[in-house]
Amino acid sequence: MTDHTAGKVTFVGAGPGAADLLTFRAARAIAGADVVIWAASLVQAEVLGHAREDAEILDSAALSLEDVVAVYERAAREGLKVARIHSGDPALWGGTQEQVDRCDALGLAVEIVPGVSSFSAVAAVAGRELTIPEIAQSVILTRLGGGKTPMPPGEEVREFARHGTTMAVFLSAARSGQLTQELLEGGYPTSTPVLVAHQVTWPEELVVRCTIGTLEETVKQHKLWKHTLFLVGPALSASGTRSHLYHPGHFHGFRRADPAARKALREERTRGAAR
Over the stretch 101-157, which tens digit does the pLDDT of each residue have? Predict the structure, then answer.
């Protein structure tokens, strides 16, 4: 039975594609929905296995924002529960905020269920940590300018590249030559490692290791132009460093430091600061 007392829209982060990367909360939201709007080209069809048999299923690829808002208006009138399934995490390049604003204007309850972002999935498949002690302690999430949505001033890839840390570049495979140029202009060496990842967690998943110097060649060789993510930075090949978090000389609320190890750790930090 549909609850006709209050409409609600739940924005569901479905992860990078694989249905078994849904959270339990995401699965419950889909199961409880009267209407499911999903991105068929970005999420595997198995996610719909959580939907009720009588749920209305709509493919967002065929819908404009106005079409989606019309569904939300119906949900407000009839007290329907809508699950709006987004790929990855709704906080990143999902067109989520404009929908939330319209739901608020309609008086609809809104919930956002976070999902696994594709940059996390690529790092997991590659077996890499993106924040390596003494190498990179930041991750920049961005995309190349020149696409459908203009980039704000100062957010060019070349400007972010000046930090020399780990960078995840979305929505940029169709302009791999421009991407290579901006990464180099920002100061990354030609030999900087790159992971080129296409449809990670899908059956046709492809992850290729290259360098900035061979990035454009790699993309063109594999004929990639969409559904592709780049991870860039020295952390992708770094080893030999150690986090202080699990060092015997480090203490926190649940563990005391070993005195000798604590002294050695302090001396190590002093030497590092002097360099």
Answer: 999 999 999 999 999 999 999 999 999 999 999 999 999 999 998 877 889 999 999
* Cα–Cα–Cα angle for 24, 102, 65, rounded to 5 degrees: 85
Higher pLDDT residue, 258 or 36? Answer: 36
Please give the model's pTM, rounded to 2 decimal places: 0.87
For residue 140, the cross-strand partners are 167
| Residue 65 vs residues 37, 72, 134: alpha-carbon distances, Å | 12, 10, 45
Q: How far apart are CA 82 and CA 11, in angstroms?
A: 8
Nearest to 196 by CA among 207, 211, 182: 207
Distance CA 12, CA 48 (A): 12
Would you call 155 helix, strand, or coil by DSSP? coil
Q: For Cα atoms 93, 129, 91, give the angle at the middle one, nearest 5 degrees.
A: 15
Q: How many other CB atoms sit within 10 Å of the CB of residue 36?
A: 24
Amino acid at 215: L
